[in-house]
Design brief:
Length: 163
């Protein structure tokens, strides 16, 4: 039986600002300042924190896997200063036309994480800023919440952790 509960987070628009032409490198990464406190609270409540993010900019050759992984390292370093951490990052590098099983609204990234970390999906959450995030979570039985405006993660997390 899967034992662990997780809060799955979309990346862009949730942890950092959306950019018009993708977040392609560290220079374009604007992390929301309250993310440290937010993730720390999730860590302390014993939920896994797993980022699941569509990064078709890789498939479009606008950025590279290396750049995307550097962005994830950078987010992790930022969190470390707040004694917080993300347990794993999963990203889809594909184009919409690739018809992969991992680009949200498909649930492949969450399925992979659930397998790797023995996650109880029914008692886990998916938080994102697009309908595709909500669909990806709902499709596999996660409770899913859409962020109404950028930078609002802390309020949502507080509500979840209180419930
Ligand atoms: Mg997003
Ligand atoms: Zn994919």
């Amino acid at each position: 039986m899967p034992k662990n509960q997780a809060i799955f987070l979309d990346r862009d628009g949730v942890l950092n600002k959306n950019q018009i032409d993708y977040v392609k490198n560290i220079d374009e990464l604007e992390i929301f300042p309250n993310i440290g406190e937010c993730i720390k609270q999730i860590n302390e409540q014993g939920y896994l924190v797993i980022v699941v993010t569509n990064q078709s900019a890789i498939g479009r050759k606008l950025t590279t896997k290396k750049n995307v992984e550097d962005i994830h390292k950078h987010i992790q370093q930022f969190l470390k200063k707040n004694n917080a951490k993300i347990d794993a990052f999963y990203y889809c590098p594909h184009l919409p036309t690739d018809n992969c099983d991992c680009r949200k609204p498909k649930s492949g990234l969450l399925v992979r994480a659930a397998h790797d970390f023995s996650i109880d999906l029914k008692n886990s959450w998916m938080i994102g800023d697009h309908d595709s995030d909500i669909e990806a979570g709902s499709n596999i039985g996660c409770k899913s919440i859409k962020i109404s405006h950028e930078g609002n993660l802390l309020d949502i997390v507080n509500d979840i952790l209180k419930s």
